[in-house]
Write a structure and sequence with these properties.
Largest sheet: 4 strands, antiparallel
CATH architecture of the largest domain: Beta Barrel
Radius of gyration: 19 Å
Strand content: 25-35%
Order of helices and strands: HEEHEEEEEEEEE
Distance between the termini: 53 Å
Number of domains: 2
CATH topology of the largest domain: OB fold (Dihydrolipoamide Acetyltransferase, E2P)
Oligomer: single chain
Helix content: 10-25%
Length: 169
């Protein structure tokens, strides 16, 4: 791997960290890259800029030949002195988790009000949010009745399978 390949790989890692992506894999005939960030916390701002990611990947394809050996990098996006505080059902709240990987949207459109807010009372079957996956909008419904006590993600943020979305008491 030459200096340009390493520079492009570093840029890709920094982009993925800044975007809050927890896991990424890319495979080409001459290179395989697998990245998994432990304790990755997604940013509160918007989600992944697909154009920027495409440009980085295109730039890496145009680079010179790379070794055929796989390259794997593991990095921690959370500071070591800061313990990860995972939501739990022990505090009496029911956690609604993401059933799919995609992008979280709190409202049906950018100018519409959010489906729910902290303090709202919901019933089983009430639409809580939309998760976009592969250009399909998937409505996520409440599987418990109660009051929304916490929303764990921001609109436009990428979410992983099983990631907590809402806490309902």
């Amino acid at each position: 791997m030459d200096g340009n390949d390493l520079k492009e790989l570093r840029e890709l890692v920094e982009f993925l960290k800044a975007s809050g992506i927890a896991e990424f894999e890319m495979e080409r005939p001459d290179l395989k890259v697998g990245l998994k960030f432990q304790g990755a916390a997604a940013p509160a701002s918007s989600g992944v800029d697909a154009g920027q990611l495409a440009a980085l990947l295109a730039a890496s394809r145009g680079a010179g030949p790379a070794p055929a050996a796989p390259v794997a990098i593991a990095a921690s996006a959370a500071p070591a002195d800061e313990p990860a505080k995972a939501p739990s059902e022990e505090d009496g709240a029911h956690i609604v988790k993401s059933p799919i990987v995609g992008t979280f949207y709190a409202a049906p459109s950018p100018d519409a009000p959010a489906f729910v807010a902290v303090g709202d009372t919901v019933s089983v079957g009430k639409v809580l949010c939309i998760i976009e996956a592969m250009k399909l909008m998937n409505e996520i419904e409440s599987d418990a009745a109660g009051k929304i006590v916490k929303i764990f993600v921001q609109p436009g943020q990428p979410v992983e399978y099983g990631q907590p979305l809402f806490a309902i008491k």
